[in-house]
Task: structure prediction
Amino acid sequence: MNESHKYKLVFFHLPKNAGVSVRRAIGIDRKSHKFPFTNVSVALGIDVKANTLDSIYESYHKFAIVRNPYERMVSLYNFRKQGNDLYDYANLKESDFKSKEELQNSPNIEYWKKLQDIYNTGDIFAILKQRCGNCAAFNITDKMRDCIKKGIGDEAPAEPIIKVGEIGYCRFLKFKCAAARTCQAWVSGGPIKD
Ligand code: SF4
Result:
């Protein structure tokens, strides 16, 4: 899936580490490789292994690239500005909070302020839109939802719970989660869907 036959390399693409340029440089052709994710950088090491022929995985060199963390954040900032993906999906609409004054009365305001500090932004509405539902780790494919349904079993009506709660699976933290939630590991570019 992430292999370069030209250089006999298997590449682990970490988000915002110049992975697209690396892929181009070593000639990874996405079209000719089986690739189950819309966003290549959410593939974990285990996914790369599972989607690479054993003979290739064993014989090719394997590598990843990391960059200076400050440069990485600049890259993330530019990426978000370009794609404006923070605004593609959010459970909350701006109209849910008609004003900053109304927001101040939200029971969770301290939590959101803390996140605002962490992301160092004055725009609390942008922070409010960073949800599991648009996180690159959030998997809502049919296959994953079928698996969640089986996990719920007969204990509760699985279908409506998944639908109403917009339930998916967090590939980073490895648990079942709802679209409206968030955490400090949030990454833009999601969700993973069919
Ligand atoms: S729990 Fe965090 S990392 Fe996982 S999907 Fe939600 S925001 Fe993303």
Summary: Residues 56 and 179 are 37 Å apart (CA to CA). The beta strands are 3-4, 9-12, 61-64, 138-139, 167-170, 175-178. The two ends are 18 Å apart (CA to CA).
